[in-house]
Design a protein that fits this description.
The structure is a single chain. Helices cover 38% and strands 10% of the residues. The chain is α/β, with parallel strands linked by helices. The chain has 2 domains: 76 residues, no CATH class; 226 residues, 2-Layer Sandwich (Nucleotidyltransferase, domain 5), CATH 3.30.420. Helix 7 links the parallel strand 4 and strand 5. Helix 3 crosses helix 5, helix 4 packs across helix 5 and helix 6 runs parallel beside helix 7. The chain is elongated.
């Protein structure tokens, strides 16, 4: 009515809408309620937290961010105010698989989908993904610590040579100096190569590999790639590979490791979670709640219920072999599990 009072009389609009003129004028002069004023103040804090997450946080992580500042608010209230303000977190795409299962195995599976580590540098998971740019594909190899979800090693290159995964492994070894850590990956040609097996033996790393073409055997690393795609790659288009390198570096080292809150570790960042572990500042009950299995990517038929156990027969149903965007991989993309390198015999990896 206020917006149309220049075109129509207030009395006429009140009569058509069944509202008394006195009631309308009383509403116009009435001050906002205490709840409305509190909501307005909370919306400002939500905007700050949402902007600080690069526009990626939904209501659960915004709630954790506000709680860290001493602001207590219910998750449903935050979700309502975010919806009213047009704020939303980013969501992941459907699960697809990009490899074909041929039944081969080059190393034992020492993890068996149990992505639980009681301390840092006990279990690392690794994989490779591609980053599209206008100048061609950029490939990213990562090594992730299963205890804190921290990226401890990474490398980027323009080809899928074995050196890509060697550089990521060497970075992890140089920064963490583990003793007998398990390195879990898929059976890509880079991880089954002779050079990679030799480096693992030399550093005392125990190789572990899941089955071919089954992302659930490396679900924790696939979960990180889903986060990377959802919060960075789907929201930006890179003209050059140098631009993509800078963006990925800033995301991994400037946001993901240092600041991004993870629901699986009590809404702490990986660096903060490791610091709490070192200082024993987190009580055992809270640690037990924070240590959970890797978040499994959304299946086409929806996310499994809380506490559900994956059934290997159900999880390994055949899928369409598609790329990240739901289509077949572009012609310029190399096959991640292709026979590009010399394969390491199965008796060479122990």
């Amino acid at each position: 009515m206020s917006e149309n009072q220049a075109a129509y009389p207030i009395a006429t609009m009140c009569r058509l809408l069944g509202v008394s003129p006195s009631g309308y004028y009383a509403w116009v002069k009435r001050r906002p309620s205490r709840r409305a004023r509190a909501d307005a103040d909370l919306i400002e804090q939500i905007r700050v937290a949402h902007a600080g997450s690069r526009g990626t946080y939904g209501a659960p992580r915004v709630q954790a961010e506000l709680a860290a500042k001493g602001i207590r608010a219910g998750r449903k209230r935050i979700a309502r105010l975010m919806a009213q303000s047009g704020l939303a977190g980013v969501s992941r795409r459907k699960f697809v698989t990009t490899t074909v299962n041929d039944g081969g195995r080059q190393a034992p599976d020492l993890v068996e989908r149990n992505f639980v580590a009681e301390r840092p540098d006990l279990l690392w998971v690794a994989d490779i993904t591609y980053i599209p740019t206008w100048a061609g594909f950029l490939y990213l190899a990562v090594v992730l610590d299963a205890f804190s979800r921290r990226i401890v090693g990474w490398s980027m290159g323009t080809t899928l040579a074995t050196q890509l995964v060697l550089d990521a492994l060497n970075m992890a070894l140089a920064t963490r100096r583990p003793n007998g850590v398990i390195h879990h990956s898929d059976q890509g040609a880079q991880y089954t190569s002779i050079a990679f097996g030799h480096r693992c033996r030399e550093a005392g790393v125990r190789p572990s590999m899941g089955s071919v073409g089954d992302a659930y055997d490396n679900a924790m690393c696939e979960s990180f790639f889903a986060t990377l795609e959802c919060e960075l790659l789907d929201r930006h288009r890179f003209k050059t590979q140098a631009e993509a390198r800078m963006a990925v570096f800033a995301f991994v080292e400037g946001f993901y490791n240092l600041r991004r809150r993870h629901s699986s570790i009590g809404y702490l960042s990986p660096v903060e979670y490791e610091r709490c572990h070192r200082e024993s500042a987190i009580d055992p009950a809270a640690r037990e709640r924070a240590i959970v299995l890797a978040a499994v990517k959304n299946k086409p038929f929806g996310r499994p219920q809380e506490g559900a156990v994956l059934d290997r027969r159900r999880a390994r149903r055949p899928h369409n072999h598609a790329g990240r965007d739901g289509r077949m991989a572009p012609p310029g993309a190399e096959q991640k599990n292709g026979a590009k390198e010399d394969q390491m015999p199965s008796d060479q990896i122990r």
